[in-house]
Structures are given as C-alpha cells and as structure tokens.
Amino acid sequence: MEKMIKLTIDKKQVEVPQGTTILEAAKGIGVDIPTLCYMHLGDMGIEHKPGGCRICVVEVEGRRNLAPSCNSKCEQGMVIHTHNMRVLNARKTVMELMLSDHPFDCLVCAKSGNCDLQSTAQQLGVRELHYKGEQSTYKVDYSPSIIRDMDKCIMCRRCETMCNDVQTVGALSAVNRGFQSVVAPAFEMDLEKSTCTYCGQCVAVCPTGALTEKDHTNQLIRDLADPKKTVVVQTAPAVRAALGEEFGMEPGTLVTGKMVSALRQLGFNSVFDTDFAADLTIMEEGTELLDRLKRHLDGDKDVKLPILTSCCPGWVNFFEHHFPEMKDIPSTARSPQQMFGPIAKNYLAKEMGIKREDMIVVSIMPCLAKKYECQRDEFKVDGDPDVNYSISTRELANLIKQANMDLKTLPDEEFDNPLGESTGAGVIFGATGGVIEAAARTAYEVYTGKTLENVNFEALRGMEGIRSATVDFNGLDVNIGIAHGLGNARKLLEDIRDGKSQYHAIEIMACPGGCIGGGGQPLHHGDSSILKKRAAALYREDEGKAIRKSHENPYIIKLYEEFLGKPCGELSHKLLHTHYFDKSKDVEIE
Amino acid sequence: MAKIKLAKSKVDKLVEICKSFDNEGSELINVLHKAQETFGYLPAEVQEIIARELNVSVAHVYGVVTFYSFFSMVPKGEFPISICMGTACYVRGAEKVLEEFKRQLSVPVGETTEDGKFSISCLRCVGACGLAPVVTIGERVYGRVSAGDVADIIKEYQK
What we know:
The complex is a heterodimer of chains A (590) and B (159). Chain A is 33% helix and 16% strand. Chain A has 590 residues and is α/β, with parallel strands linked by helices. Chain A has three domains: 4-83, Ubiquitin-like (UB roll) (Roll), CATH 3.10.20; 99-213, Alpha-Beta Plaits; 218-576, Rossmann fold, CATH 3.40.50. The longest helix of chain B has 13 residues, at 8-20. Chain A binds chain B through residues 164, 169-177, 184-188, 194-195, 324, 582-590, and chain B through 1-8, 11, 44-45, 47-49, 52, 56-63, 66-69. Strand 23 of chain A pairs parallel with strand 1 (3-6) of chain B, so a sheet runs across the interface. Chain A: Residues 86-125 form the 4Fe-4S His(Cys)3-ligated-type domain.
C-alpha cells in the first residue's frame, strides 16, 4: 500500500502519497504555484523539472533556504507557505534578474500574448526593474522552419527535453557555462546544418520568443494583394480540428466550413483541401504497398519490407539524418502537401488557363517541417516551388484576426472543386494511425476485390506511442505497426535494422499524437486530453463523410482518367514520387 | 554527405578508448579525459567520433566539452601552463601571476604561443591550497609562486 504523508500547505492540512512534490500537493488543494521551467507532458510520461528557474520556490518552515516546489518532495509534518512575503519577494527578484538580460521588444515579439515569461512577470506583479547588467548578444539563427533568437532564452531547457528525450533527435544541448551558457546545436552551428528535423516540438514548448516559426504571413498578404497572381490554398486535415481553439472554442471543435469561409474572405482565388491530396497519396502509396507485398509473397528476396509511410516531412528528415542506410525502405510517395503542389501547377493551372508562374500555391499546415519541405530542391521546377510556402495553424489564426474576422461567427462554406473533394480516409491523415487506416481501406479492396463492410479499423487508433495490429486481407495477415513521436519511431527503426521487425507496413508521424499535435498547432501545453479531442474530431468528420475510401473519390478517379493514367504510372512517378538523401555526417578516414 | 577527415590511426585509437569504457554514454567525461590526454585537445572530429561510438548526440558531447574548462578545443602547448584561480590561490595573488605569464608569453588565457610551446589556462583548485598560489606545467607543480618567479619558470622550458 502507498504510504501517505501529512503536511500543512498555507495553513491547510493535506494528505498525499509519498513521493508527491510540493507543487502537485498544492495543486491538489487548489493552490496554483507559478512555474516557468517546469513542464509536465501527461501521457508522454515526460516530466521536466530541473528546478532551474526558481520561480516556484516556497518556504518550508525550519529550512534555511526556499525550496523549488516542482522538484521538492513532501515530507511528513512539513509546514509550507506558498505566498508569504519572503516567497513573493524572492519570486519577484528571480523574475527581475531573468528580465535583466532579456530584450525589451515585447511589443513586436512574435510570442507576445502567448509568452509564459511575459504572463508570469505579470502574475508576479513585476512593475519595476532594479537590475541592469550585461546583455547576451547571440546571432539570430534563421532556418527554413525555425528561428532561434537566443537573447530571449531563459535556459529553462524544455526544448532540450523535447529534442533529446521525446524525439531523440539530439540537435540541441545546453553548451558553455555561466552567463555564456545557451541551448544550441553542436559546435554552435546553425540549425540548418545540424541534425534538426524541424518537427517544431521545441517551438511548441518554448516559454519565450527564443524559438519561433519562420513566419510567411506577410509574404501571403503581398501575394493576395497582387492582381497578377492566382493564389490557391490547401488546408491540412489537422488544422480544422484545432484552429477554433485560437478563437476560444472548445478543443475538438470542427471548424472546417468556417475555415473555408475565412480563407475565401481573405481573398484566395480557390480554397482546396490537402485531404484531396491525401486520397491521392493513398492511391500511390497503397499501390506501392500492394506491389511490394505481392512481390514478397511471390518469393522476391530483393523486395524491401516493411514499407514505411512518407507523409511526414519531420520523419523524412529524421531518417535522412539518423538512419540513412534505410532510405530505400520508406515509400517513395510524396507527402500530400507535395502531391497537391504539382497537381495544382501542372493540371489545375492548365484547366484554369493560367501559366505556372502566375499561380501561387499556399498550404495551411499544423507543421513547421512543411515549411522546409516546400523549399527542398527536388520539389521545384526551374526554381519555382510546387508549393510556394506553408503557413502554420497559428499563423492562419493571426491572419484571420488581422483581417477583423471572428471565426466563430463565420458561415460554413464548402471547398472548391476539383481539388477540394475528399473522403473520410483523407481526413484521418491528421491523427496517428490515420494514414495506415486509410491505406488499409483501399489496399484491402484492391487486393481482395471485395467490398470492405466495416471501414473502421479500431485496432489502429489510439494514443499509445507504439501500436501494432494485424489486419486480415481475406486470409492474408498484414502486420501493421504505428509510431508517433520520433523517439518511438527510433525503436521501430532499430528493430528493422536488427532484423527483428515482423511488420509489413509501418506508419510514422514525427509529432506526438500525429499532425494534430504538430509544431505549428495552437499550443496544448502538454495537455494530452486536447490531443484526444482533436483526434476524435477528425474521426467524427470521417464518420460524417458519404465516401470513406480514397479510391472512390470521384475527382481522384477523374484525375487518373484525364491526366495521370494509373497509380505509380509514368506521370505519377515524375510528379508524385520522390527520392531521399543521406544527410548523416560521417567521419572520413584517410 | 558531409565528411570529416581524420587519420585512420587516430580513429582507431579513439574507438579503442571508447571501447575501454564499454562504449557507455555515462562514461563520456572519462572518455573525453583520455582522448584529450592522447590528442592534446578535443577537435570537432574527435567529438563526432566519440558521440558515434558512445551513441550519444554530438550536441551533448559538445555541451560537456564546453562546460568544463579543463577540456579544450584548441591544441594546448607542448608545456601547458595552468594557473590555479581557486579561492586560496586567488587571495594570495594568483591573478598577478597569471597577468605576468600572459604578459611574458603574449597570449591570452585559453590560447597557445605561436611556436606551440606554451599555452595558458586557468583552473579551479588543484587541492594543494597550502602551497598557494599554485601553478602547474604539465605534470609538474610549482608552489608559492610570485610574479617575480615567472621569468625563471619560463626559462626552465626554453632550453
């Protein structure tokens, strides 16, 4: 039985299990001690409590020093004061010292209004700054996805925990010592030269403006105002399940129709859906899966199994950096974003009677790695990117606010056609397990020639980090693995490398929860119940769709008939498939 | 693929060092000590190989190397001079001794003279506070050093 401990917090008697921290015990009686470096990501099992910032200090009677409540455990008979004068003064002093080395550009900082440092200073009632000292002067590091402005870093090291413990990417570490210490890549190189995958999970947890996304909204405003440009937009599935949160709506509220309406009012010539491209991805990736599977069953020893999904650009970056020897295992199918681009610029532009260079394709993504993906050379034609740039869910919310719209009051509108029609299979791409479920729906029917009665593969759904299920393809057992979060992906990859993997197909998403938990989404502050609600919203939209299998999308059928020919055919290979690079850094031996 | 060049014999030696610590990530500091003893310093290439062998990130290795002042990414001199700046040495005039070394050799702390002979670094307490201020050159320890002794000490190594 758990041993219980009795103590007093702010004159109230409390009983908690042994091992409970003072912070947790206080929370239990409704005392919310302010924190800054502390981070608790419930279901991911990650608790970051370095006790470094000293904002959460409390007085423990009989102790000389104030104790950081986030990492001090409750002891029998403790008498704790969480808000006496000594504590309040200490917190204020700590905050003032932190601010003494912080740039005062809050009015124009990208994080303003969403900054934990700012809101904590407010909460502590800091109105004067008594300390002035040396200022950090780091060079701002601009990568295609993430901007690092380390003058604003307070060394909470949350980003380091995400990068190393959750994602196992290892791009960031605390380096140097004392005043010079900073979180940086190895040898303080630019992020672009490091092993960073641009998953953006560091940005999602940064409490200040030190880590922010590369913002493309000004570029977008300029393009929308240019009468010579035809600007079309595609929206990723996960955006509709989270955008509402930025306008005070409950997590899990679907705002698909309102989002379409907002985009149309912003001035886009056409509002399309990445879900359409997701259906297209299933046609290509599903065909590739069945081809490899059939060859494997026919005894072809050269065929590579398992096949890995390739929709997630953070994941692609991860294996290019960390597992380059396995770069021929993932599907060669491009991500939906990068399938949409060439279809828009090669097919739609012709239909619309405009030149490729006069069309601007913008994507709304829950993701920061998508920004980098747009810029990859293999996704450009004569320097013109298939997708010009990508803006995040957060950037879109800001843009809607800038344009004086309240998302809540907008009418529901429908996507434009032909690239706006999608099936339920395309919608669930946004949640972990969704891509492989969508693939299974189509692959089952193509392989067996039978109609799939129940399209809900419940076994593939859920929030567990690594999941597996066996799907019965009319007598053929297809073993499917799923991982979300790159740390979990690493485990499956190591099994494949060591020849221990029994899977035929594996879906991998870089971000915990899949795209719904992407680095460009409204901040969830580690509350995994929000992720579950977003996922549930996508499955709800899937349920409500008349068509729920990608290969039954009438516009997809038409696209193959009129333009592409057949899945994995010659034109598909040129426009919809890609290849991968070895980006590992290795030592050359002389 | 970005390549880094390093002689095979050096790589082999490093691999061997890592192996002698069972390629354990938790032995990183010991491995770095041994590597610096072998190569004199810890250039980026060496850190890359150590990271690979111990299965830790290069950023982490670099973090540890830059945290401890003992580790150096620039080659040390043939005769590495270390001046103790611990409390006891400091109060007994270590700073004046340091200034004198810097003046006579014309190099700042952390760097090496052009002829590669001397490098100057500071350290925190060698555990010989009774001899404060303390200077070490290689393995040799000099006690109760004053600024006036510096010229004679340097002369010993210039023969």
